[in-house]
């Protein structure tokens, strides 16, 4: 086996608004088993597809995709802070290969990332810098968003590059499934927040950071009491999505418009494009076998929470 994959929902709410102990233990077991499988695979290179939540990417310049040549996590919501171990020469070669393949991804030599990147690295690899990782940002909240088709093509191009390295490669996808936490939208905010979204939010004062986190926590507490206070979770759509990935039918998502996905499953569900990119990258190695599927709607985390592994059969 030369390539392994793990896709996992993330949540900034863990430790702030948690589900019952039995559910926490169940999720811990799912994550711990995935971490063990990854340790056995022992990746030489990790490619992490993840979104951002206006912590590193803003409307001053908002790329659809960005490949990090260097990256630092800010440590929002108690996630780990500090530099990732990005192998710059490999990341540069990857970016070049992606552009040559016709996918115009941006690059960043100082990528700032949040819990969307930090959480899978902590949970699945034991820390931000335990393995060499190429961070790949997929814009999942700041409209206009890339399509499923473009995320798939990005993943395919990165998968072909990763295969050419001859290394044991782990692909990670972070985020989703159905969910719509309160993330500000440029079209619906006042001038001050618009300024934040356009870039002044890059270094938030501590009191604003605190207020912003509290807004998400309060929304989760409200959602537990009334699951129509935000866009409801959509287990039916989530399970259909997992079926498509397991059965290597994710190309069927190419025809789905972004607005349709938002309506069906919530505006932050676009984070699942990280899963599509990761599966498309794995598929560049040949046939794959998916395993260890897990799904549970967890209102405390405002999340259709999922986890899925796969390995290449070559
Ligand atoms: O700008 C804000 O207030 C963003 C809040 C935020 O970071 C929410 C994140 C939620 C998730 O990452 C998620 O549920 O996927
Ligand atoms: Fe998120």
The CATH class label is: Alpha Beta
Give me the side-by-side strand order of the main sheet: 6-3-8-2-9-1-11-10
Q: What proportion of the residues is helical, as a percent range?
A: 25-40%
Runs in which pLDDT lies below 50 for 5 or more consecutive residues are none
Largest sheet: 8 strands, mixed
The small-molecule ligands in this entry are: the ligand O=C(O)CCC(=O)/C=C/C=C(\O)C(=O)O, fe (ii) ion
Q: CATH-wise, what's the superfamily?
A: LigB-like
Total discrete domains: 1
**Rg (CA only):** 18 Å
Instruction: Report the span from N to C terminus.
Output: 6 Å
- What is the CATH architecture assignment? 3-Layer(aba) Sandwich
Number of helices: 9
Order of helices and strands: EHEEEEHEEHEHEHHHHHEE
Q: Can you offer a commentary on this structure?
A:
This protein has about 325 residues and is of the alpha/beta class. The chain has one domain (about 5-310): LigB-like (Protocatechuate 4,5-dioxygenase, Chain B, 3-Layer(aba) Sandwich), CATH 3.40.830.10. It is built from nine helices and eleven strands. An eight-stranded mixed β-sheet has the order 6-3-8-2-9-1-11-10, sandwiched between helices. The chain has a three-stranded mixed β-sheet with strand order 5-4-7. The mean pLDDT is about 100. Fe (ii) ion binds near residues 53, 175 and 268.
Short description:
This protein has 314 residues and is of the alpha/beta class.
């Amino acid at each position: 086996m030369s390539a392994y994959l793990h896709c996992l929902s993330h949540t900034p709410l863990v430790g702030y608004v948690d589900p019952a102990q039995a559910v926490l233990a169940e999720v811990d077991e799912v994550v711990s088993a995935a971490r063990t499988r990854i340790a056995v695979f022992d990746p030489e290179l990790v490619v992490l597809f993840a979104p951002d939540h206006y912590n590193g990417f803003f409307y001053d310049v908002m790329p659809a995709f960005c490949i990090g040549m260097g990256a630092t996590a800010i440590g929002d919501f108690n996630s780990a802070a500090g530099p990732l171990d990005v192998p710059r020469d490999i990341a540069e070669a990857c970016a070049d290969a992606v552009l040559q393949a016709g996918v115009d991804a941006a690059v960043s030599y100082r990528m700032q990332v949040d819990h969307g990147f930090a959480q899978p690295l902590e949970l699945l690899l034991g820390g931000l810098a335990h393995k060499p990782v190429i961070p790949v940002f997929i814009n999942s909240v700041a409209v206009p968003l890339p399509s499923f088709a473009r995320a798939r093509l990005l993943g395919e191009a990165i998968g072909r590059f990763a295969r050419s390295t001859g290394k044991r490669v782990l692909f990670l996808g972070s985020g989703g499934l159905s969910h719509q936490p309160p993330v500000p939208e440029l079209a619906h905010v006042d001038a001050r927040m618009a300024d934040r979204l356009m870039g002044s939010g890059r270094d938030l004062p501590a009191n604003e950071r605190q207020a912003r986190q509290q807004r998400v926590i309060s929304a989760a507490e409200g959602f537990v009491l009334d699951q129509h206070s935000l866009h409801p979770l959509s287990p039916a759509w989530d399970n259909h999505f997992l079926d498509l990935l397991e059965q290597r039918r994710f190309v069927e998502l190419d025809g789905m418009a972004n607005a349709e996905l938002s309506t069906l499953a919530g505006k932050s569900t676009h984070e699942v494009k990280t899963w599509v990119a990761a599966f498309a990258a794995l598929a560049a190695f040949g046939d794959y076998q998916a395993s260890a599927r897990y799904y549970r709607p967890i209102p405390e985390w405002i999340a259709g929470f999922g986890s899925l592994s796969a390995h290449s059969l070559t």
